[in-house]
């Protein structure tokens, strides 16, 4: 009897160690091709981070999973790619939060002006419970939100004259991102706001279909807007995040190991991208100056006047987006500010 017991124990131990070794050696990862699209050109923060992400996926999967990156909106504008992901005809992308607001209106909170003061505050809110909850809201719409990259604090450029005060925006045809909040805010500031996909923007500026636009300095530099926009006003009016997205239809076909791998690679890309974006901002400012842009920084007193001007539309959109959500966002920013 003792012998049988010992034998049973032994075979149990063998069985347990076999399963453990098997799971560690061969994760459930299949050969996959992932198409990853983005709107900026290859030589941009987005391009560099996309290549980093692709390499990370290769590394973690021992080359089984391959990511092909497509820049310059060659797979479509942010909106078009979002739809392709929902339809399951494209696997992944990165794009701004603004056009996501047409699917999950709450993403419009990031277009409310003058909320964040620093990238530290933005990181804390985005990586905190509120940012994560917004990502989860995408699932019901057919998208998996993985991580936030930094697009950054937006500034104004135009081809007419320096913008020193809000009144200088009067009559300026200004391209804005495609959602109600962005449109309402810039109209309230006195501009003539024109919603348009980013992919059409350079040509629109060049042909003077629009007079101006707003984007972080990294994008103004990498998209060469300085060639067609002599005036830059540092306003930092909005902090726009980018979201790395996967098609839910496609995501559901992945094994848990594959999903975890993509999540891990995405988290690494976020850290890489934010660091790169912040370093690149300083370089971009220098390049813009060298290329002859006339740069002014809007004064604090003027920001206060702009805030006053937009307050009625901020109140209106706060009601539409959800007063509790906006309050929570403001509280989280305050908390991050105190730390
Ligand atoms: C790139 C856009 C861009 C955004 C915009 O596809 O639309 O102005 O700032 O980064 O997402």
From TrEMBL:
Key word Amino-acid biosynthesis present: no
Domain of life: Bacteria
Extent of the signal sequence: 1-26
Keywords from the UniProt entry: Signal
One cellular component (GO) term of this entry: outer membrane-bounded periplasmic space
This protein's record includes keyword Glycoprotein: no
Pfam families membership: DctP (PF03480)
One BP annotation, GO: transmembrane transport
PROSITE patterns assigned: PROKAR_LIPOPROTEIN (PS51257)
PANTHER family: DICARBOXYLATE-BINDING PERIPLASMIC PROTEIN (PTHR33376:SF2), PTHR33376
Protein name: ABC transporter substrate-binding protein
Higher taxonomy: Bacteria, Pseudomonadati, Pseudomonadota, Betaproteobacteria, Burkholderiales
């Amino acid at each position: 009897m003792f012998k049988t017991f010992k034998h049973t124990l032994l075979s149990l131990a063998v069985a347990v160690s076999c399963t453990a070794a098997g799971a560690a050696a061969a994760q459930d990862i299949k050969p996959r091709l992932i198409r990853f699209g983005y709107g900026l050109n290859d030589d941009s923060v987005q391009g560099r981070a996309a290549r980093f992400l692709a390499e990370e996926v290769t590394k973690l999967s021992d080359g089984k999973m391959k990511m092909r990156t497509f820049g310059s909106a060659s797979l479509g504008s942010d909106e078009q790619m979002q739809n392709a992901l929902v339809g399951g005809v494209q696997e992944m992308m990165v794009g701004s939060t603004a056009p996501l607001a047409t699917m999950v209106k709450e993403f419009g909170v990031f277009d409310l002006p003058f909320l964040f003061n620093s990238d530290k505050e933005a990181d804390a809110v985005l990586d905190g419970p509120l940012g994560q909850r917004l990502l989860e809201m995408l699932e019901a719409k057919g998208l998996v939100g993985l991580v936030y990259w930094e697009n950054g604090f937006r500034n104004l450029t135009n081809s007419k004259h320096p913008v020193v005060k809000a009144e200088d925006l009067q009559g300026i045809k200004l391209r804005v991102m495609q959602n109600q909040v962005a449109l309402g805010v810039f109209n309230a500031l006195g501009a003539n706001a024109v919603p348009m996909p980013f992919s059409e923007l350079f040509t629109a500026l060049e042909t003077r279909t629009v007079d101006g636009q707003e984007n972080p300095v990294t994008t103004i530099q990498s998209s060469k807007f300085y060639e067609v926009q002599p005036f830059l006003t540092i306003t930092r009016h909005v902090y726009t995040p980018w979201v790395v997205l996967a098609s839910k239809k496609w995501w559901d076909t992945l094994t848990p190991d594959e999903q975890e791998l993509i999540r891990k690679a995405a988290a690494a890309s976020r850290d890489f991208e934010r660091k790169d974006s912040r370093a690149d901002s300083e370089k971009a400012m220098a390049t813009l100056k060298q290329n002859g842009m006339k740069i002014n920084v809007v004064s604090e007193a003027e920001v206060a006047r702009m805030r006053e001007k937009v307050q009625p539309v901020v109140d209106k959109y706060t009601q539409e987006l959800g007063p509790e959500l906006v309050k929570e966002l403001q509280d989280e920013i305050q908390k991050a500010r105190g730390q």
